[in-house]
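Revision sheet: structure tokens.
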Amino acid sequence: MKRHLRFSRSFLYTSLLMTALAAGSSAYAAEDNSGADNLRFSGQLVAQPCIIDEGNESRELNFNSVIEKSLYVYGRSYSRPFSLLLSECDLSVGKNVRISFDGQRSLALPDLLAITEGGKTSGIAVGLETADGSPLALGKKTSDYQLKAGSNEIFFQAYIQAEPEALTKKNIVLGPFTAVATFYLEYE
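Predicted:
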């Protein structure tokens, strides 16, 4: 059965904004031989203290089997660890990083990820927490992680949370599920 949490990456302050502005239609451009600029590119080149190695931009965490009975007894599953690896960190560019996660939010538990693929599976959401077990709400930044030169591995955990109504009505629907989160890095 498929039970995954997928992460993709995005860097705050690192998106290259590229716009193409065409001056008129192709018929007009064909008639205009003035050589005027009709295509413009712009962007912002920035320095990042660390890189994410190719192949580590997207992570997948498999929960394997989550026992329905534990969700009814404890309200949530055990935590599964995962990490983000930042490489080639240059402290002259930035010494700290704050990380946040976002994605489609559960309606019943808005600080947690909704199940985005899962057939009929329902009554659950995916929660995130720091390595020490502190809850990490979607869209909220972590405190600063101090970087060291070279590689830095930052640890987190994920868990399955039963939705309150599903617990009360005892109607969690079993099956495979997927939730997707995007992580953001903010360097200082």
